[in-house]
Amino acid sequence: MRGSRRSDAGASGSAIALAVERADWERVALLVLIGVARAARELPDATVDDVLALLEEEARDDRRSR
Question: pLDDT at position 8, please?
């Protein structure tokens, strides 16, 4: 299983590099989002909740400063 994870990472790394070379920014953003989602899946639930709380707080602060 670990070997397949490495090949997935390598393949997505190559896909990101190719998308950047082609200036395909929507594909780059999608691949980054997929990577973040995969990483978040590995985190403990409490960590994800903490990150979401921080993002929500930051969004509230941004709305207040407008």
Answer: 47
